[in-house]
Amino acid sequence: MSTPKKLYIYKNSLQEKDNAFLIGIPNFWKDNAVTWFSNFEALTRTLIRTDDELADYVISQLDSIDKALVRDITEYPPLNGFYDALKNRLVCLYKDSDVKSRAFEVICVRDYLFLYTMSAPKEVIVMLVLLSFISKSSAIHCYYCNSANNSACLDINQYEEEIRSNIIPIVNCDNAIPKTKPITFFCRKIVQTIFHPHRDNEVRVTRGCGWMPHAKDCYKDDNSDHLGTSCQCFEDLCNSGESADPNIMVVLFLCFSIILYFWRE
């Protein structure tokens, strides 16, 4: 029987290397707690500004974790609210589903939260797998950054995939964006030239989630203080900026099909 995967969220145990490794967060925080906390602190300062948003983002990154332990981090005051928000989300995540409640048990004791797999019938495990596929098929993942506080956001394609995943956050829009009703999300990239009266103009790139689609895939806005181009797309991580236009791909496919047809003739 394999050992359950674990997620440890520490602040005061960075020296405990064996306990500080993070498993199950493949996209943003990798390998060790030092990377986790340097990115985590940057996230609290810039990218995601509220405890609820931060907790939603962490939940969106949890991938097939069989066991999670959240330790008290009251020594780091800026994260106290996040700790409570994350704890509440982990409890809510598994308490409402009959299927999941049979396969998981959540216990809150003082400053500890345990979420662990219990003995479950095979049918329950199969249903959980199917539910995970349903969830992934309806969700979209997007790059989420702003070059105003993360210069790597200007051109993320200059970085290799392994490096990119450590410096450019990836979010599941369904989990990262608070909503009061069902919304179909898509990825968005906005490039703005901001005019400053007393210094050079600034190019700013924002990547994230959108939920109010425009009639055009890309459109421009012209204001007195900036020029902007917004593009929307509907595939995972398509807001990297280098993805091909689907209309162009259709034309290329048709051309290739015609050439192949006459070649065979």
Describe the structure.
The chain is an alpha+beta fold. The protein contains 9 helices and 11 strands. The chain has helices at residues 17-20, 33-47, 51-61, 80-95, 98-103, 122-138, 161-167, 173-176, 246-264, and strands at 6-9, 67-70, 104-109, 112-117, 141-143, 145-146, 170-172, 186-194, 202-210, 218-222, 226-233. The strands form 3 sheets. Strands 6-9-8-11-10 form a 5-stranded antiparallel sheet, with no helix packed on it. A 4-stranded mixed sheet has the order 1-2-4-3. The chain has a two-stranded antiparallel ribbon with strand order 5-7. Strand 10 (218-222) and strand 11 (226-233) form a beta hairpin. The longest helix has 19 residues, at 246-264. The model is unreliable at 1-49, 61-80, 90-137 and 243-253 (pLDDT under 50).
What does the oligomeric state look like here?
Answer: single chain
Question: If you compute it from the alpha carbons, what radius of gyration comes out, rounded to the nearest whole angstrom?
Answer: 22 Å
User: Which structural class best describes the helix and strand composition?
Assistant: alpha+beta
Query: Uncertain spans, ≥5 residues at pLDDT below 50?
Result: 1-49, 61-80, 90-137, 243-253
Number of helices: 9
Determine the N-to-C terminus distance. Answer: 59 Å
Mean pLDDT comes to 59
Largest sheet: 5 strands, antiparallel
β-strand percent reads 15-25%
The order of strands across the largest sheet is 6-9-8-11-10
Query: Helicity level, as a percent range?
Result: 25-40%
Number of strands: 11
Helix-strand pattern: EHHHEHHEEHEEHEHEEEEH
Mass-distribution shape: globular
